[in-house]
Structures are given as C-alpha cells and as structure tokens.
Design a protein that fits this description.
Strand content: 15-25%
CATH architecture of the largest domain: 3-Layer(aba) Sandwich
Strand order of the largest sheet: 3-2-1-4-5-6-7
Largest sheet: 7 strands, parallel
Radius of gyration: 20 Å
Mean pLDDT: 91
CATH superfamily of the largest domain: Glycogen Phosphorylase B
Helix content: 40-55%
Number of strands: 13
C-alpha cells in the first residue's frame, strides 16, 4: 500500500479556482493531504480568492511570471509551466505516495497539469469532464485543450448525462456522474457570505474569450452593443486584464469611457461579482462559468458567443446571442430579457464536490 495519499489541485485561472475551491474545502474537511499548485496563467486576485473561500492549503507556484494576456504570451508560457508543474509533482510523488492530480475544465493550465501528471506516473482526475462544443476550433483554444485532456484522464468527473455519454467512448477512462457542476457549491458558499440583494435596473457585461477579443470587427461590434444598451440602462462592464489591454490597443476604451451610463470595473472578487450580477436586470457574458452561475441564480443571461458546450440555463434564463434575432441592444431596450428571469435554484450541501471527493478517496484507499 502507498504510504501517503496526496491530492494535488493544479489551477491556473480564477474560474478554475472558483470551481475547485469547494472540492478543496471538502477535502480539507476530511483531513486529506491537499496541495494547491498555481501555474500563473492568472495571477491577479488569486490570493484574494483563496482567502475568500477560506482555503487552508498554502498555494505553491509552478513558476513566477506576470499574467499572460495574449495568445502568443500563453504559448511562450507553456513550456515553463509544464516543467514547473512536473518538478513539484516529482517531489510529491516520492516516498511511495499515491498521487492524484485534479485538473479542471479546458484551459491551457488544465492541459499542462494533465500532461505533467502523466509524465510522472500520477493519476489524472478531470473535473468538469466530457463537455464539448462539437467543433474542434470553437472555442479556441479551449476545445482543443479539453480533447487532449480527455485522452490523458484516468477518472472523468462528468457534470451531466451527455458528458458521461461523451466520455464513455474513451475506454480506459472511469466516468463518474457528479450530478451537476461544482459551481453550484461555489455559489452556495458565496451566498453564505452575502445573501442575494434586491433587484436593480442595470446590466452587467463580462467578455474575455479570445474569439471575441482578437477579432477586431467582432470586438468593435460588441462595444457598440454595450454603448447601445447603455442608452436605456446603466451598464457595469467588468474588465478582465486581457480585455482592458485589447480595448486600449484598439482605441475602443475611449468609446466606453465617453459613453454615458457605462461604468468600468476592474476584475472583482467572487462574492462582489456575484452580488453585482445577481441584482442586475440582465448579464451579457461569453464566460462558461458565468452561464452556470447565472443559471443557478435565475438571472436573465445573453451568451455572447456563437455556441456553448454547456446546457445550463438554455431554454430558461439564458439565450444565445444568435437566437436574439432583433439584436441584443434592441432585445434589452424592449425589455424582452425580463421574461427570462427565474427563481434561484435550491443549492444543497451534498452537492457535486462531495461526490467527487467520495469517488477519489474510494480509489485512493
């Protein structure tokens, strides 16, 4: 029998940390040996998130670097991140340890963590596994990342039946139905700190995907949509560092600065953002995590991308941009988004995070 069972969480982005936080907390509540390894893909406010969720594990950093906010910057970051993660995993894989590396989602950090784990003989546990858009280049590079990670996975934690069916084609992968996404547990944790506030008449915008930022015509059109929505209600635009940089490079920041009713915010803490979004009239976002959070909260959501790999909220509180035939600005100006509002979902303590930890520990014993 191995001497030690070590659960290593490899995390690169804020969205990943938010979704793995409840799994880490569940592990810590059971006195598991937990390691939190940051790749540095995102750096801003990561320490704040660790504190916000009350995670006790002290993060280790696979490499010291500034946050990368361009495709080429991330490509240059990849080799160093892989070597840094592998170095830590080799250290923790000594003493006969039974190491499980938990990676999440579809980012470059997910790919780095899974590849490094395979290289040292650790077992790969993929959280939020089996999601797919069905289009290899959309979204880019997320869909490519997840398809590569599927092939490296030992245990696939699937949030839905369709994800289970997709992962069943990988014969050597053990599939576990987590009966939902860990974001439900993250929202439940956040609402303990701040109950849902009263509704207000404003919109929230959050845009950060490469496919929106690096198509000049597309990004210009999105800014025009934001300015048009601001003609009828206040708009709170929460800017990721990459979004702010890209808008400034294309001189689009000036359009937003000069637009009446557009309020620009730096990237926020989790509870602060969730509070802002939960009280809003509607949210325009290209984020998969936002789609899931807002489905739990029932907030009207317009998904600003051609397609999504997630079913959360669709046909209920969420609608794809392509299905808003009169255009997003007109849809909001006419108040049609309000028909999408739903009640908050029941958020139970025995959620997906508990099922994930049960499954991993069953295999670790």
């Amino acid at each position: 029998m191995p001497e030690v069972q070590v659960l290593v969480f490899v995390v690169g982005t804020r969205a990943q940390l938010i979704k793995v936080a409840p799994v880490i907390l569940e592990c810590e509540s059971r006195a598991c040996e937990v390691k939190l390894l940051m790749t540095g893909q995102h750096k801003e406010t990561m320490d704040d998130l660790v504190a916000e969720f009350g995670i006790r594990a002290s993060p280790d950093f696979a490499m010291s670097s500034t946050e990368r906010d361009s495709i080429w910057g991330l490509m240059a970051w990849l080799p160093g991140a892989f070597l840094g993660v592998r170095k830590f995993l080799r250290r923790w894989n000594k003493r006969g340890s039974n190491v499980f590396v938990l990676v999440h989602g579809d980012t470059l950090s997910t790919l780095v963590g899974a590849a490094a784990a395979r290289s040292v003989g650790a077992r790969v546990v993929h959280l939020e596994s089996g999601l797919t858009s069905g289009k290899v280049l959309d979204p880019f590079p997320e869909e490519i990342c997840r398809r590569l990670v599927f092939r490296m996975t030992d245990m696939a934690m699937c949030p839905s039946e369709s994800a289970m069916q997709h992962m069943a084609r990988y014969r050597k992968v053990e599939c576990i139905d987590t009966q939902g996404n860990t974001i439900l547990d993250a929202v439940r944790c956040a609402l303990k700190a701040l109950p849902i506030p009263a509704k207000a008449s404003y919109a929230v915008v959050s845009l950060h995907r490469f496919q929106n930022l690096y198509d000049i015509g597309r990004l210009t059109a999105l800014v025009e949509t934001v300015v048009s929505v601001a003609e009828v209600m206040e708009v709170h635009f929460v800017l990721h560092p990459a979004t702010r940089k890209r808008l400034s490079q294309l001189s689009l920041m000036q359009c937003l600065d000069q637009a009446p009713n557009v309020i620009l915010h730096p990237r926020m803490g989790y509870v602060a953002f969730l509070s802002l979004a939960a009280a809003s009239d509607c949210v325009l976002t290209d984020g998969g995590s936002n789609q899931e959070e807002l489905a739990a909260l029932g907030v009207p959501t317009i998904i600003m991308r051609p397609r999504t790999e997630r079913a959360d909220g669709l046909g209920a509180n969420a609608i794809m941009e392509a299905d808003v035939h009169e255009g997003v600005a007109a849809f909001v100006r006419d108040g049609k988004h309000r028909a999408l509002r739903r009640n908050c979902m029941p958020l139970r303590a025995d959620g997906p995070s508990r099922r994930i930890v049960d499954s991993v520990l069953a295999h670790a014993s």
